[in-house]
Amino acid sequence: SRVRGDTPPQGVTGLVAGDLGWVKLAIFPGDARTFSITVGAPVDDPALKALSNSALFERFVRAFPSTAPWRLPGVSDPIHGDETPVLCMGELRNRLRHFVDDHGPLAHGFIAIGDAAYHTNPIYGRGCTLAVVPAAVLAEALSRPGLAPVAVARHLHRESEHELRPFWDAAVAGDRRALGHEVPLLTDPRGLLVWAASQAFGWFLERSILPATRVEPAVFRGLLRIFHMLDAPERLLTDPEMVLRSLPVLARVLRGEAPKELFPRIPRAAVVEQLRRSG
Hints:
This protein is mainly alpha-helical. The chain has helices at residues 46-49, 54-61, 127-142, 149-163, 165-179, 189-212, 217-227, 235-238, 240-254, 268-278; strands at 2-3, 16-19, 24-29, 35-40, 76-77, 95-96, 100-101, 104-105, 118-119. It has a 3-stranded antiparallel sheet, with no helix packed on it. Strands 1-5 form a two-stranded antiparallel sheet. A hairpin with a 5-residue loop joins strand 3 (24-29) and strand 4 (35-40). Helix 3 packs antiparallel against helix 4.
């Protein structure tokens, strides 16, 4: 859609996103007063599959106080008119493909970057960066005089594992937490330890780090640096300033005094009922 005036609703110029547990929503402002509204719905929720219908999608986004102002009459217009389709995306999986092993490249003269090598769930917004980083590494390797193609492939693999693998692992861990994967069997102590560490990290992230971004600029900047792959994911727990500034917010959350969320917690049943009545 495109905003009619020069100022977006509520004076918001940056990303507005929220995870309500049963659905995820985000507003992405773009160039020339354009913006998109993204809805991340579980694939096994039959009521939300109907959101591919443009009219139902409009009624859905207007059910939330944070997205409704963007699509009120006179505020914005669909770029291609009222018949602008809802663009759907599925198969949001994390995939990792290696084309180099201990003996060297599997196919000489073949190089893979971007989604062909490290593909993460697009909800994390790192697709472009996961392609640009290895492209820069590849360009740097190719600029070295006399570097053999086998050495180029090994260099790309080594640097990609160092720069990209932590973010791929973080995406996998995040999706597993969201899907609520079962506790590993007690016969697998290492798997149980990894699962427990992931659960503890997710608990701290959701109750401390994320709420702190709404009231602590240093935590917000730190999280954005990780989001944009300028810092490694483990900085969430290893950076003293981020942790120390988040702890008081954790205390507030545990007391039931969490900072105000951008997206109020609206129950799924209320929204689905509204869609049914308006349909």
